[in-house]
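Two quick folds needed for the group meeting slides. Do the first one here.
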Amino acid sequence: MQGVYTEQLLPVLSPGRHRNPRRGACFMEYASYLAGLRWSDHPSCTHPSVAALARLVNDVTSDEARSRLTALIPSVVGLVGNDPRVPLIVSSLAASSALPISSEIRQRALAAGLLRCERLLAGSSGPVTDRTRATVRAALDRAPAAEAWARAFEGEDSVTRPRPIAISDEAILRASVIGIAEACILDPDERLVRLLTKVIAETSEILRPQRISVPTRMPVRV
């Protein structure tokens, strides 16, 4: 019988976790697939903070817009490193994007987180840190009532000597991503894509990931 050739199908992006590629893939499961690693939504090929944001954005983005995220997946493969600035940069950019457009209650929580980020950023230097610091201040300036509430709630001493942000601070990331998704705006999907794109670009500049070869998915003979 003459052999028939078909192309191997790539996973389709969809929310949540998936047992295997045939059932679909979230952003990070797709990244593990491209990297040739064991199927996982927590692959070792991507920094935990960037991966946490990617999973959240993947899950809340609309079905119509989620396919746009596919183009970003190769850029997180190999994006690894131990630079302590990365979790802070990711949290700061996410909360800055969400603060001006979120509901009042969520704004207060985000403002409290950004005040801590601002103080911690003051102890770092570099182009990415400088840009992020400016982004944080601009976001706080656009929500003065939320900043005033956060300062009054925590107290100036707490803001001045903040607790360190965890390496994968999913609390502030979750509040940020859901805040954008549920905001009364016309373009939540566009803002989420821009946020993830910016985070990948800025953390790439810090980590300078090595180029790794991505396995080629060859046609399968049936």
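Then this one, please, same format:
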Amino acid sequence: MLCLKAPLPPGSLQTIWGDDNRFIDTYFFKNNTSYFYKTFDFAEIDNEGYYYMLGRTDDVINVAGHRIGTRELEEALQLHERVAETAVIGIQDKIKGQVPLAFIVKKEVADFSENDNDTLREELDALITEELGRFAKPKQMHFVPNLPKTRSGKLLRRALQAICEGRDPGDLTTIEDNNVLEPIRKIFNS
């Protein structure tokens, strides 16, 4: 996880109103005599000292000991000519720890036949294996008309994960279209 040595630069959030201890407990840790701010981003540093941002910690899943970013999976799936957009989340698995689950929006919305979906799943499995390896193949791929997003276009992964795990997705006041979740709920309630 990427951490910054305190103090933070001016303009950075320094506390949460009315709950300083919660802010400190969540975002800071002490190492020897210095305090560090946890960004909740994964990063790597190479031999030459260059940093590479891998994504948010909540966007990285651990599949049988392999750490993989959901963004990497999404980018690989989107290489297919028939895929418009994707969302990948990690769900709990008793054997592997977590497994990826993919939601895919096709470019041709009208084409949702089961035979076509099976063929496309096979092609996407082969693509993931080629790009990232067999371990990264999603456990399930679901074809949906749209993905849940905020009005600013940010993907609501937490809503997808909550529905997959049978939980309440919580506050969705920022969602662009509430109807987007219904086809996803039907997949997991049937």
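Slide caption for protein two: The first strand starts at residue 3 and ends at 5.
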